[in-house]
């Protein structure tokens, strides 16, 4: 069993949450709470680094969509990090988001430096 972890850091005015493990029915409330905590502390520019998430079910997708809604309600910005080559590099989250037709809702970047740089364009859907 892979341990689920969420580690937060500040990077260039962005709150970055590095998520690893499986994002599922059991673990998704942990990520939901961390996102809410960041917003409650006034951090409205948020990067979710999902490059180390090996599995994501519908409850995980639900947390991502709810996070997007929450950040947008604060006029904030949410960016996701998936491996730059997406499904070609076996990014489970990228495949799930694409299969459900919600990948286009998110600004996706290949790594943290690109995500926190306002001059970098997101990867195409």
What is the compact description of this entry?
This protein has 125 residues and is of the alpha/beta class. The protein has helices at 28-40, 58-73, 92-100, 112-116, and strands at 5-11, 14-23, 45-56, 77-81, 107-109. It is 34% helix and 30% strand.
Rg, rounded, reads 13 Å
Strand order of the largest sheet: 1-2-3-4-5
Strand % is 25-35%
Tally of strands: 5
- Approximate helicity band: 25-40%
Runs in which pLDDT lies below 50 for 5 or more consecutive residues are none
* Class by SSE composition: alpha/beta
Q: Name the average pLDDT.
A: 90
**Straight-line N-to-C gap:** 31 Å
Overall, the morphology is globular
* Largest sheet, strands/sense/barrel: 5 strands, mixed
Question: What's the number of helices?
Answer: 4
Order of SSEs: EEHEHEHEH
